[in-house]
Structure formats: structure tokens, C-alpha cells
Amino acid sequence: MALSDSVTTCLSQPVHYVICKLGFEKKDTYDINNILSGNGEVCWQSLAEHVCYLESGQSVDYIKSIRSLGPVCESVNLYFKSLTKEQFVIQYASWFHWTDSTEVFLEVFDVLQYTQATEVALGLMKLTSCLERALGDVYLLKGDDCPFLLRDLLASDQLADVFGQAVMNVLKVFIGSPYGLNLRNVLWHGFASPQEIPAKYCAMLLFLTAGLGQLLQAYLLQTKYVLVHRPYVIFISLEELDAFPDLNNEILSVAEELVKQSSFVLKIMLPFWIAALTAFKQNKYADSVILLLPQLEVGLRLLFTTTNKCPNRLLTAESSALYTTFDEMLAKHLDNEEVNQLPVVLEEPSMASDFLWDVLNHQEGPRIRDRLSHGEINLETFPREVANQIFGFAITILYRFSDEDTFSLKEHMVIKPLMNCTSCYRSRFHPISRLKKQVLECMKSIHLWPELPTVPEEQVQMIKGLEGNAEVNTLILMISETISQLQHYMPQNCCSSDDLINSVLTERLLMELCDTRICTLYSPRPVLEVVVVLRKISTQCHQVSQQVIAGAGLRYTQWVNKTLRSRQRLNYLRMLNSIKFLSPVLQLILLLITLELVSVHSVCKKNPFDYQQYLKFLKSVLQYTENLVTYTSPEKNKWDETMELTNKILIKIRKISGRKLMLMHLAT
Predict the structure, then answer these.
(1) Predicted confidence band of residue 516 (pLDDT cuts 50, 70, 90)
(2) Count H helices, E strands: the chain?
(3) Which residues form a coiled coil (predicted)?
């Protein structure tokens, strides 16, 4: 029997007891009228009396509190079941407006009427996500930087000032504290199966959210504060996530069979997988991803704990230890410094890990799980494109851990396009990948310069006081000499001895160099430090290009309209003169960035070196580009100084080129 069949719970014995049994020990019936006033308002004082404290008097005794609140939660659940949807909306809908997600809470009420376990769990995940976001908005009434973790948010003085400490202690019994029920974490991290989450706790959190809305309304009336909701995160450049083809009905039908057979799926979690696929087919993309992500985590956790021989880590950790989550499972080493074996088991370790890092962890990536679980995304407009990519990845994992002999040739052919995508995937949101993208975007910008409108050469010659052609020619010669030194480290047949600048400094060459495959997984710290500087240099180069394009266009219009004063005309012509060397200089820097990116990564992998001196040189190039941004700005227009700066940096580049070439040589 596969291990995924034998697992009966992912909750440790103490956590299972707290969630599934503790709140059911008191059998007495609780009168809902004790915590509900005649006009439907929550009586927080009566609720707070059920929160017990340790002998110190300040810390919550979570075990006693959960036991005491158990009958109260059951009473709330039965009360909600007794209401019609219309009654609930009339009585409570306005109390959810403070969350900016009223519809989500009304949906949770609908779910509670039927008590379908998977739907209750989904409702609870959505409820806690929206509640956390709303509490963060309230926090910002009195604080500046909202805590990232729910635990820290609930423990903040700011929320205690608004709602009262006793109210916050009631909340902490259910969410946010590892010592309490901790419902948000056990669900979002994939530890709880559908049958292990009592519906009465979902009902209670719905009730408490309405009660918080009542308290907040009174607070806002008293203080005259205005609650402002932070804007939702909007996914942009969705095409960058495009790794897998669109999932059609044929692929989804095969996926339904894979879910039932794959050893990646814990059988106790099967209802979640089926519900996720169903939601996807029903165009409920946020729901589908909310259901799927915890299952990817628990499936990978099963592989992680099996391959690294630490089966106890499959279960929820106690409050004194950490959960085994995505971050640890994707790390290079375990906490005992041994090498993590999970990537090896995934067969395409770079693809699987790179994809997961891209969608979950990289700061410039979509960070889908973080943003969904913390309520930063509008659930109603969650894009199909994002859900499609996560499901595409999930299907490849399911297939990889299935018995191929049980599938027909047709089913193999249906899945084949997805599997082909895994072998060619490259990280899109790793800093190295972002640097490549920056370089190419900057090069495209610089290649617009020849199309800029310019003054006819004969008019330029008529202007007295304009000098510098000799200096420009000297700079261009220095650029050619530097390119000549570098050409041994570039692809063959890309250089023409007759015109090194125009034959080498091309978008095609940079695209070819950027297409060089670099393993971004587990990049050494020296590489990342170098990449940070290289990205800053690229950003400054792009800024210079944009300023030149804007400035040249404006000045040409003013020239044609004869609105430039004498000094402005002269400065404009100096600008045109400077463009002759600035364009190849910026392109040379982009070429150096790309060559260094490939070489420094290889050198660090093979032969760690003293990169501090190397960083020092790169920072001098950064200083040059920062000064360029200043001198080429509309406010400064210091073109003679730009020429002097460029002369100095080119001398420095040539002087240090021997060391740089040694670095590149080490890499080849």
C-alpha cells in the first residue's frame, strides 16, 4: 500500500485533539441569547467571559478557553442554520461592509446551511483571508506598517486600542496563535483534511466578524476616523507566467483520473483535489487555487519527509516548533545542514523548484499563496491564466507519481504537451532572470536613438563655439578597443573587424547571450550580490536612454519652432554630439553586464573568488551611470561633463579588463 494511502491524518495527536475533540467535551447546551442582544448585536462581554487565563492573569489558557467556547460555537452554528438567507442578510450584511468582502461572508453563510465538509474548509480559508486583510486596514487607522503575520497583527496594540484586548483574545483562540485552534494555518498549509474542521468554528468566525463590524462602527463614529481599504494586488504581465498550454476538457478529464491514482495525493485529501478541479471547470478560479495550493504543499511535504527520512515532519508541529512548509521544502539544505533530497526525487528538479519559487517565493513574482492567504487579491477577478499555470504544474506532478502502465496511449498523448513544458522551463522571476529582461528592454530603448529627429549636419556646422568631435572620436576608438578585447568571450561570427561597434553592439547578440541557460536555483550569495549591482547599473542605463529620447524630441521641436535661446541651441547641439558616443557606451555596458552575468555565476560555482574587489569595480560603473542620469536630466543638461565622465570610466574599464578577462577565462 502506498504511503499516501496509509496516512490517516496530518494533524499531530495534540493538535488533532485540540481541533477535533476539545471543543466537544462540554455537552451542555448554550443559550444563544446570552451572547446576542435583541437587535442582533454580539455581546462581547459575555463572549469574553468564556476566555480563560493562566495563573499569571494575562496569558490566555487556550485549552480551557476552547473547551469553554465549544458549546457557544455549536449554539451559534445552530442559530445560523435557523435563519433564512433573507433574514441573515437583513440582520448581518451591513456588519460585513467593513471587510470590503461582504459577498464572501454571505457565501460562507450559504455553505453552513449544508455543512459539506470541503466547502466549509474552503469557506473558512476565504473567511480568514478576508478577515485578516480587513483587520490590517483597521490597523492602519493607528499604525503605519501593517504586520505581515496574522499572529503579530492580532497581538498589536493598535487593534487592541480599537476593539479592546478582551475581544482580541477571543479571536486568538480561533486564529493567529499556534497555541489555539490556529484554523487559518492548519488549513492554508494543508494539514487538515475536510472532515477534521468542525463547521461550528466556521460559524463562530462568521459571527465574530459581524461583531467586529459592530464595534468598529461605534469606534469610527466616536473618533471620526475614516476606514480606507488598501487596493488589491493586480497581476500584470501575465504572459510571463505562460509556461503551460491552456487546459482543455480532455486534459482535465485525464487529471481527474490522475488524482485518483497518483501516489502524490493523500487519500484523506482526495475531496480537496476533486473540489479544486470542479471549481476550475466552473470558472471559479480563486476557489480552485485556494483548494489546490495547500494540497501541493502537503503532497510535496509527503515526498520531502519520505526522501529525507523524517516522517514525523509530515504532521503539524507543536506550538514550540515550526511547520514543514514550502520555504523549507524548497531550500538547498535541511536544518541539520544535510542536502535536501526532494529536488532529486522530482526528476526535473530545476523545473519544479524554479516554477514553485517563481509563483510562490520570488519577491518580483506573483507570490500567489501569500497574496491569496493574506487577502491581497480580489477573489472575484482572479485570472484564469494564473490558475491554468498552477493546475498545469500540478498535473505534471500527479503524472510523474502515477503508474504509467494504467494509462492508454491516448491519455499519454493528452498529457505529453504538459510534460514537454517541464524540460524547457526557466525561472522568470529570479533576480538573474529579471536582470536579463532589464538588459534587453534597455537595449530596445537605446536602439530607438537612430530614429530620433535631428538637426541636419550642415546646420550644425554653421554654429560657432561647438567643438568636441575629436574627443568624440577618441571615445569611440576606446570603445572599439574594449570590444576587441572582449570578442574572444562572445559567440563566433558576431564580430566584423571593419566595424566592431555596429557588428557587436546589437540586440541580436544580447538576446543570444541572455538565452544562455544559467542555473538560478540555489545561486551563491556572491552571485546575488553581484546581480544586485548589475541590475542597478541596467536601471540607470535605461533611465539615461529615456531621458535622451524625451530631451532630444523636445529640443528638436523647439529648434524647428525657433523657440530656443542661443545658449540652449548650443547645448542642444552638444547633446546631439554626445549621443554619438553615449549610445555605444551604454550598449557596451549592457554587453559587459551580460558577459559578467554568465561568467561570475560559473566562477562562483567552480572556484569561489574574492569578489569584493570585483564588486568595487562594478560599483564604480554604477556611480558613472548614476552621474549620467543626473547630467542628462532636463534640469542639468551637462553634456561636456558627460564626455569627461565617459572618458574616465572607459579608461578604468580598459585598465581593469585584464582582471575581468581572467574572470571570464575562469568561467570558460
Answers:
(1) confident
(2) 30, 0
(3) none
On whether both 597 and 572 belong to a single domain, the answer is yes
Tally of domains in the chain: 3
Range of the domain at 318: 238-423
What own/partner pairs with CB < 8 Å and gap ≥ 24 does 1-5 have? Answer: 2/263, 3/263, 3/302, 3/306, 4/263, 4/264, 4/265, 4/266, 4/267, 4/302, 5/267
Tell me, yes or no, whether 6 lies in a domain. no
Distance CA 242, CA 256 (A): 23
Residues 62 and 95 in one domain: yes
Q: Which residues contact 463 (CB under 8 A, 6 or more apart)?
A: 569, 570, 573
- The single residue listed with the C-alpha cell 553615449 is 582
Residue in the structure block whose three cell numbers are 536612454: 545
The candidate with the shortest Cα–Cα distance to 299, out of 662, 507, 7, 646, is 7
CA dihedral (432, 438, 444, 449) positive or negative: negative
C-alpha cell at 524: 551563491
H helices within 270-364, ranges in order? 270-281, 285-307, 326-329, 342-345, 349-356
Higher pLDDT, 19 or 480: 19
DSSP class of residue 148 equals: S
pLDDT at 496 (0 to 100): 57
Q: Which value, to the nearest 10 degrees, does the dihedral of the CA atoms of residues 639, 643, 648, 651 take?
A: 150
Q: What is the pLDDT of residue 279?
A: 98
**More confident of the two residues 44 and 3:** 44
Residue 469 has pLDDT above 80, yes or no: no
Of 553, 340, 349, 330, nearest in space to 451 by CA: 553
Residue 228 lies in a domain: no
pLDDT exceeds cutoff 80 at 467 = no
Among 164, 198, 223, the domain-final residue is 223
More confident residue, 551 or 497: 551
pLDDT of residue 34: 94
Task: Indicate if 419 and 444 belong to the same structural domain.
Answer: no
Q: Are residues 185 and 113 in the same domain?
A: yes
Q: Is pLDDT of 173 > 60?
A: yes
Q: Which helix (H) or strand (E) holds 454?
A: none
**Residue at which a domain ends, from 400, 423, 446:** 423
Kindly state whether residues 33 and 157 are assigned to the same domain.
yes
Is residue 122 assigned to a domain?
yes
For residues 140 and 161, what is the distance between their CA atoms, to the nearest angstrom? 12
Reported as type and span, the H/E element at residue 248 is none
Residues 638 and 513 in one domain: yes
> What band does 504 get if pLDDT is binned at 50, 70 and 90?
low
What's this model's pTM, rounded to 2 decimal places? 0.90
Q: Residue 510: its pLDDT value, please?
A: 86
pLDDT band at 152; cut points 50, 70, 90? very high
SS3 42: strand
Per-residue pLDDT at 462: 64
55 and 195, same domain (yes or no): yes
In this structure, the answer to whether residues 386 and 437 fall within a common structural domain is: no
Question: Is residue 216 a part of any domain in this protein?
Answer: yes
